Amino acid sequence: MIIEDYYARLDGPRPLDGLELVEPDVAFLFALPGHEVSGTDRDDLKAYIEGRPPVGRKHQVLRRSRDGDLEMVYGIVTEGDGRGTGSFSAVALLSSDRRVARYQAFFHPTFALFPLPAGGAV
Predict the structure, then answer these.
(1) Which of the 8 DSSP states describes residue 118?
(2) What is the mean pLDDT of each run of 10 residues along the chain (122 residues)?
C-alpha cells in the first residue's frame, strides 16, 4: 500500500523520500492535538516534514484497508524505546499514477483503539 510505504519512508533515515509518493499538488490535513496543519502542494508537505523534531518515532500500522483508489491505515506511534505516544488514522486518495493526491491524518496522544505500549517492542 502506498500510504504504508509513505510512513515507512517518513520514519526512515531519509524522511523526504516519502515525497516521491505524493503528487506535486497534493492536498493534506493533519489534525493534531490543539491545532491543524494543512497544505496544497508537495512543498507545503516538505516544509512540514522538515519542521518536525528529529526523534526516533515510528508509525506502526496495525490495520489497513484499500477500496479502489482509497487507502486507510490505523496504528500507533512509538518512540525509540518502544513507548507508545499516541494513535493515528490516515486516509489517502490515490491519483491514476498511484501517488497520493489527497491525504488526511488524525493523531491523538491518549485515546487509542488498542493499548499503547509502555516500552519495549510492540
Answers:
(1) S
(2) 96 94 98 96 97 86 98 95 94 98 96 85 44
Q: Which CATH class is domain 2-108?
A: alpha beta
C-alpha–C-alpha distance, residues 98 and 23, integer Å:
9
- In angstroms, the CA 96 to CA 81 distance is 39
Q: Are strands 84-94 and 100-108 parallel, antiparallel or unpaired?
A: antiparallel
Q: What does the alpha-carbon distance between residue 10 and residue 122 come to, in Å, rounded to a whole number?
A: 19
Find the DSSP H helices in the chain.
Answer: 2-11, 42-51
**Coil, strand or helix: which one is 76?**
strand
Structural contact between residues 69 and 6, judged by C-beta atoms closer than 8 angstroms: no
- C-alpha 26/C-alpha 55 separation (Å) is 25
Its pTM surpasses 0.85: yes
| 23, burial (CB in 10 Å: exposed 0-12, middle 13-18, buried 19+) | middle
